[in-house]
UniProtKB/TrEMBL annotation:
It comes from Lelliottia aquatilis. It comes from the Bacteria. The lineage of its organism: Bacteria, Pseudomonadati, Pseudomonadota, Gammaproteobacteria, Enterobacterales. This is CaiF/GrlA family transcriptional regulator.
């Protein structure tokens, strides 16, 4: 792969054919971020939805994902403007993409690993209380 690195540390493919080949291997959120950066300005969810043939809701979710959870890879700015009638419109402007900071696909996620449940012995009195059982031979 013949990549060029710009002064801002952004890696981009050297030609449209190579970008198209590489795009198939990239996750959708990263393809959206790359496209937004190529647009060189703020982009709304309608434009993203049309460009990637996805629902507007999914485009809005991707915008939130890029700005919220992927700040380690994508430096982006999300701006919400309020138009007449209280209608809010969000735009996304991608400033740079740091591909070197991206973990390998299927690698470590940003979530902490699930803790194992402590499966110690539960006293029978506690179990009976939780299950609503009455012990035989007891005073009612």
């Amino acid at each position: 792969m013949n990549n060029l690195t710009t002064a801002s540390g952004v890696t981009s493919a050297s030609g449209p054919d190579e970008l198209a080949r590489d795009a198939a291997n990239l996750p959708l959120w990263l393809r959206v971020a790359q496209w937004c950066m190529d647009m060189k300005g703020p982009v709304g969810r309608n434009a993203i939805a049309r460009a990637f043939d996805i629902p507007q809701r999914q485009a809005a979710d991707l915008m939130l994902y890029i700005t919220g959870r992927r700040g380690d890879v994508v430096q982006a700015r999300r701006q919400v403007t309020v138009r007449g009638g209280g209608i809010r419109e969000a735009t996304l402007e991608v400033l740079s993409i740091h591909v070197a900071a991206m973990p390998a696909r299927g690698g470590a996620s940003q979530k902490a690993p699930r803790r194992r449940r402590n499966t110690g012995a539960v006293p029978s009195a506690l179990r009976d209380l939780a299950l609503g059982r009455r012990r035989s031979g007891g005073v009612a």
